[in-house]
Amino acid sequence: MFDPYSQCATRRGLPKEKMSENGIMSRAKVLTIDTMNPTVKKVEYAVRGPIVQRAVELERELSEGMKKPFAEVIKANIGDAHAMGQQPITFFRQVLALCSYPELLSDSTFPEDAKSRACRILQSCGGNSMGAYSASQGIDSVRQDVARYIERRDGGVACDPDNIYLTTGASDGIVTMLKLLVCGEGTTRTGVMIPIPQYPLYSAALAELGAVQIDYFLNEEKCWSLDITELQRAVNEARQYCNPRALCIINPGNPTGQVQSRQCIEDVIRFAAKERLFLMADEVYQDNVYAEGCQFHSFKKVLFEMGPEYAETVELASFHSTSKCYMGECGFRGGYMEIINMDDEVKDQLTKLLSVRLCPPVPGQALMDLVVNPPQPGEPSYGSFIKERTATLSALAEKAKLTEQVLNTVQGISCNPVQGAMYSFPRITIPEKAVKEATEKGQQPDMFYCMKMLEETGICLVPGSGFGQKDGTYHFRMTILPPTDKLKILLNKVKEFHQRFTQQYS
Amino acid sequence: MFDPYSQCATRRGLPKEKMSENGIMSRAKVLTIDTMNPTVKKVEYAVRGPIVQRAVELERELSEGMKKPFAEVIKANIGDAHAMGQQPITFFRQVLALCSYPELLSDSTFPEDAKSRACRILQSCGGNSMGAYSASQGIDSVRQDVARYIERRDGGVACDPDNIYLTTGASDGIVTMLKLLVCGEGTTRTGVMIPIPQYPLYSAALAELGAVQIDYFLNEEKCWSLDITELQRAVNEARQYCNPRALCIINPGNPTGQVQSRQCIEDVIRFAAKERLFLMADEVYQDNVYAEGCQFHSFKKVLFEMGPEYAETVELASFHSTSKCYMGECGFRGGYMEIINMDDEVKDQLTKLLSVRLCPPVPGQALMDLVVNPPQPGEPSYGSFIKERTATLSALAEKAKLTEQVLNTVQGISCNPVQGAMYSFPRITIPEKAVKEATEKGQQPDMFYCMKMLEETGICLVPGSGFGQKDGTYHFRMTILPPTDKLKILLNKVKEFHQRFTQQYS
Prior knowledge:
2 copies of one chain form a homodimer. By secondary structure, chain A is an alpha/beta fold. Chain A has 18 helices and 14 strands. The termini of chain A are far apart. In chain A, helix 3 runs parallel beside helix 17 and helix 7 (169-181) packs parallel to helix 8. Chain A has helices spanning 16-21, 38-42, 50-63, 90-100, 112-123, 140-153, 169-181, 201-209, 228-238, 262-275, 299-305, 308-311, 344-356, 362-372, 382-408, 432-440, 445-457, 484-504, and strands at residues 74-75, 164-168, 190-196, 212-217, 243-250, 278-282, 316-321, 334-340, 413-414, 423-424, 427-428, 459-460, 462-463, 474-479. Chain A has a domain at 46-84 and 386-504: Alpha-Beta Complex (Aspartate Aminotransferase, domain 1), CATH 3.90.1150. In chain A, the strands form 3 sheets. Chain A has a 7-stranded mixed beta sheet, with helices on both faces. In chain A, strands 9, 10, 11, 13 and 14 form a 5-stranded antiparallel beta sheet that branches. Chains A and B meet through helix 2, helix 4, helix 7, helix 8 and helix 12 of A and helix 2, helix 4, helix 7, helix 8 and helix 12 of B. Chains A, B: Homodimer. Chains A, B: It comes from Oreochromis niloticus. Chains A, B: It holds the Pfam family Aminotran_1_2. Chains A, B: Its cofactor is pyridoxal 5'-phosphate. Chains A, B: It is an enzyme of class 2 (transferase).
């Protein structure tokens, strides 16, 4: 009867009937939904939530030949450039191949600058191998290259490699910093201010850490801009029930795509100094700025240009990643954080904490090195690198504009300009009748909307409720990453769906 | 005066005097050692602790030309095979190069089996690129390959790919599982049983999670074997102050190198069933078994061969990694865990939790795939793969024996056989006078001993106190990874140092 060599034995246990018949089966599980970590249960992450699980199911059903009203599922839910057909930067991948298999260093088809870059990386690795652990803070030479990149980016503002920590994607750095900040109980519990709408890594991490999430609302009417009076309202209210200690900023915005002005950043820094908040600047979209008149300003640069009163006191962590911008190398999980004005003892604690996980993935560190130290003028790969980078960024700029334009032609959809990042976050009007039907189903109205769109069109978007939004407003997040041709088709399908949906529920 | 473009501005703040002179400088830090997360402060991780920091300093001093009584620092503190000169498996690195830069697929110098393996991996990646995010649980085809590997390893016991989760090294999986298990407060707080000596990831993770660490002692007199009566003692005592919910086993042992018998594993499983404990089996050294008469038995296989009473009820997570065994690819941070009999709702929570970090590094997943699906007989790379693997494992077996033999020639050092894994963990006699001097310095006696050895010989070991040991006993952990020639020199230096140290303090 029992066959350990059968697949069935391990699949989700035996059927219930069998379990109750058999006395020995009745031993209760150690770990159940009622006895597991309660903070984990509170975690939500919409970008890979139920709608994406359904999208994966639909893909499987399609591949099994099941009939659907669409030929393919388009996952516009996540900023995953390569999955959408974007090609990697040739130079980056050449260097990674050389680092993976150094015998290729004698292959004459590889350009010399790729070889010299690979040699420099390998020389910084234990035993000249990416298979060795690196220092927990990251490879020294990579951290030096990051520091020089930041100095160039910030017009010469100094950067100390000691302040650079390489990470497993930006998420890892953000969670680590939040972890350091959490303490206290009840009304002294650490509160962390996050924008609404936000990237749900923040809410998920705060839930897991048991910290208090303090919402501040971005102003949709003013192109999702950040308003200091709203920050003030939020922190004042929060002081009654927790201890606000950190302020998270996402610039360029995710999911909202706004790019902050220099003035706004100054104001935020002044606010953080006045209210004694640790600043966390999520700047992973720093190369993704499309709108005319918009420019990326790093918090670090603005902070240092405000003079010593701020530059020497305000605590700041800034995060970057290999996953976004023009390279879109999400799978390598590369990233770094720069930490300014952190207390020395805390820094030691941070280094200790990171050492438990040994080190960030070395191929991701190598890739981060290439991002901050790409081919320079005069090097053989410079021309092709610039060509590839420009092509990707121009296409993104074009798609940002296209998305805004097409969506704004639809009655009941209103889309702010996509100034930067990789997403549109349009507001949608959902008819009363649909809201009612969703509520009866126990679903958020925009989840109901997005689920219906997925079933009818194969397009996978993320409902605004997964990012947070003002009560009574509805949105979805859609990436602008599909190739232009496909994006046009997708936008038209969204348009048709919205019209159909509106008609159906009016 | 203030120059944002000077390096000094960012370095560890300004000197204290300047700070007190200047009113604006006096703003206190938000994040200090007193206001940071108290659980993080409790974390300790000896493998990269103060002794390793000093080793890094010494390396820097040597490179700056400072005179030392040694020419190089030998880091025998960590299982980092490539850093010790072990060469990667050629086939693995060829496939990784092909996956990194698929243009190489048309290069005739790469063997066909490497190409077909690379194609299979790339076809499972979004956009055929390692730069795309994978599913949070890991790439489907890799999980299928892992499942087939486990079935082969376990003589046909079934494995469902649905139970496989790819991880960022084994550490990531272990921390994630512990995280799920933690709940309750005071005397109902989750307790987790760990071996003493242990690999300090466990104590570090439990400290950070605020779980209760329950020590059970391995029996040094019986070659570090695990004794069920000791497990029983530990759990009985622990029930008075916490809620024991999990039992961690490291087999082959780290730092202790013992390999558990099949009988012992059966007994442990019975104990876990009786005491209602979730089993966590750290099996990352499963290929590292050297001693005659010893054999690796997976907990999964033994569990399933014990019949349905156990196979269908005992909850088990088993962990593996790309970092150890014959491949030693630590830097890629690849790993997997297999989860047996986990409650379905908890499994959903696990998948959700993993999704917040998006996915494990894809190059590490690719490498894990190669480890579980290496060249097969008849394929072009089979011969060289077997040759390389055998050479590494034979050398390790030889070095395990050599280490034990040489250390046991030293009066005051007594070393159990290194049956498996990558470390010796000898017991050392430290003279009273040295214990006194260490205590006066506020140092553990074996830390004092290891620090002195480092300063005098350049050899970096980890004191036994970092892993836990019976009161009044002292040990160190030393890897057996250096090349044989170097290992001989190292062992002789250890011998000489121990004799000198003993004489000095007698």
